[in-house]
Amino acid sequence: MLLLLLLLMLLVMLLVLLVVVLMVAVTVGGSVFQIILMKFAVHLLPLIYAATVYTCRVVPMVKRVIV
């Protein structure tokens, strides 16, 4: 139960971190950085998708357990 909440927090923090990195990349605008980021993003997209689906499935379960 507590573990699920911790996992959700971790996922949210990872997404926030990703957004921050993307913003920095856009601000810096370094071509090398963008290339690395694009390669990274290709690998991250399925992970983000899986995390979103997982969160959408787990959140109602957690709510039901709490209520």
What would you note in describing this structure?
The structure is a single chain. This protein is mostly helical and 67 residues long. It has a domain at 41-67. It has helices at 2-28, 31-66. Keywords: Membrane, Transmembrane, Transmembrane helix. The chain crosses the membrane at residues 40-59.
Report Rg: 15 Å
- Overall geometry comes to elongated
Helix content: over 70%
> What do the pLDDT scores average to?
77
Major β-sheet annotation: none
Share of β-strand residues: under 5%
Q: Helix/strand/pairing class, anyone?
A: mainly alpha
* Regions with little confidence, pLDDT below 50 for 5+ residues: none
Could you give the distance between the termini? 13 Å
Number of helices: 2
Keywords: Membrane, Transmembrane, Transmembrane helix
Transmembrane segments: 40-59
Q: How do the strands and helices of this protein lay out in sequence?
A:
Layout: H1 2-28, H2 31-66
Helix pairs in contact: 1-2
Keywords: Membrane, Transmembrane, Transmembrane helix
Transmembrane segments: 40-59
Describe this structure in a few short sentences.
The chain crosses the membrane at residues 40-59. By secondary structure, the chain is mostly helical. The chain has a domain at 41-67.
